């Protein structure tokens, strides 16, 4: 079992603001296990007919719970009307703490007749963060996290099982995409998913995806939106400030987990040249843990200079994050070009192995070198 105190703290903080917390994440990311770590929790599996029958009368079930009780409604989207017990709990039993789990965002389908605006807080559970991997000061452990990915079962397995990854993809389509989004073109959808996994970390080219999958461009965009809602991919938009010479349209697409990227690329081991783009995935997860998605971007100008990630912090401040395996390899050219346009903010170099953050100078700029655990809020 992987202990996940960072996420337990996030759930407790969310409960201090609202009575209902929506915990979402891809299947097998550890939602049920995490929910079971909540002290003195009442766990209700909504996949079971008995739970569905009990929740047919939410007032009776919720009214029988002691004040302050924590109740998990696991896989709540399996219910015929999943928003009903959540709405009643928020409005009439706000002295209870409800943790509802599901694979996608709350309003993924028409099943949710109420989005619970103002009644809930959402927590998106990522695969195991690099800072959750203990005290990782060795390349083999790092390569294991990159190759196996961050789904707890896969991460803890002795060897990587390609069959398990293929089975996950089939189950993801059948249990999430088909059921929630009614996508009937299985072959076309899975071809798109596998291409996005294989090309993860690059800019999205809908025309190329359309040609490669033999799907129409609107269908590709529709399927990609479903994949985003189901947390299988994440699109990072280009940062722009209104001036000329910047890339302003094409987002970059990142798969949810490095294990699936290496699976689709057919890698059985991590070579030195493979680490860079995979490391970007882990840094992105840690940034998303700390910042809203709408504040995380990448930047690129038409001269090809690119900053891996930039985070909008308010009052004109924008922080930059360059992802490097070796901090000595950082170049300041792209950041200097970025700072000519956006001078306010801090510059970071994020590396896998560093015991304590320190500062370096490159091209007259000062960079803070840190690990993912030192990114700050």
Structure notes:
Strand 13 and strand 14 (365-370) form a beta hairpin. The protein has 14 helices and 14 strands. With 377 residues, the protein is α/β, with parallel strands linked by helices. Helix 6 (139-148) packs across helix 12 (258-264), helix 9 crosses helix 12 (258-264) and helix 10 (206-213) crosses helix 11 (217-229). The longest helix is centred in the middle third of the chain and has 20 residues, at 162-181.
Task: Label this structure with key terms.
377 residues, alpha/beta, 14 strands, 37% helix, 20% strand
Q: What about the largest sheet?
A: 9 strands, mixed
Structural class assignment: alpha/beta
- The fraction of residues assigned to DSSP E strands is 15-25%
Give the CA-based shape: globular
Give the distance, in angstroms, between the N- and C-terminal Cα atoms: 27 Å
The quaternary organization reads as single chain
The low-confidence parts are none
Helix/strand order: HEHEHHEHEEHHHHEHHEEHHEEEHEEE
Number of E-type strands: 14
Radius of gyration computed on alpha carbons: 22 Å
Task: Enumerate how many helices there are, as a single number.
Answer: 14
């Amino acid at each position: 079992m992987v202990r996940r105190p960072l996420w337990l703290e996030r759930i407790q903080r969310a409960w201090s603001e609202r009575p209902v917390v929506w915990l979402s994440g891809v299947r097998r990311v550890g939602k049920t296990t995490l929910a079971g770590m909540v002290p003195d929790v009442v766990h209700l599996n909504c996949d079971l007919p008995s739970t569905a029958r009990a929740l047919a009368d939410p007032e009776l079930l919720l009214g029988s719970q002691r004040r302050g009780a924590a109740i998990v409604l696991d896989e709540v989207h399996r219910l015929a009307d999943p928003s009903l017990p959540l709405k009643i709990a928020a409005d009439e039993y706000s002295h209870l703490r409800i943790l509802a789990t599901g694979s996608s965002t709350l309003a993924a389908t028409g099943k949710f007749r109420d989005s619970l605006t103002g009644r809930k807080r959402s927590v998106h559970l990522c695969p195991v963060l690099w800072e959750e991997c203990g005290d990782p000061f060795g390349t083999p452990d790092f390569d294991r996290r990159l190759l196996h990915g961050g789904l707890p079962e896969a991460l803890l397995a002795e060897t990587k099982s390609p069959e398990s990854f293929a089975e996950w993809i089939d189950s993801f389509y059948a249990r999430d995409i088909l059921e929630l989004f009614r996508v009937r073109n299985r072959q076309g959808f899975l071809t798109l998913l596998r291409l996005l996994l294989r090309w993860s970390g690059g800019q999205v080219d809908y025309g190329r995806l359309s040609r490669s999958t033999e799907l129409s461009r609107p269908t590709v965009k529709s399927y990609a939106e479903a994949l985003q809602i189901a947390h299988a991919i994440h699109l990072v938009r280009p940062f722009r400030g209104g001036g000329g010479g910047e890339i302003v349209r094409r987002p970059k697409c990142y798969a949810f987990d490095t294990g699936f990227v290496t699976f689709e690329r057919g890698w059985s081991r991590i070579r030195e040249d493979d680490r860079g783009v995979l490391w970007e995935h882990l840094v992105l997860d840690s940034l998303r843990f700390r910042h809203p998605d709408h504040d995380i971007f990448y930047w690129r100008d038409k001269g090809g200079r690119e900053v891996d990630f930039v985070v909008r912090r308010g009052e004109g401040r924008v922080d930059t994050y360059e992802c490097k395996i070796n901090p000595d390899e950082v170049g300041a050219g792209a950041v200097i070009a970025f700072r000519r346009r956006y001078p306010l903010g801090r510059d970071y170099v994020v590396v896998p192995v560093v015991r304590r953050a320190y500062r370096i100078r490159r091209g007259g700029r000062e960079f803070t070198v840190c690990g993912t655990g030192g990114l700050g809020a």
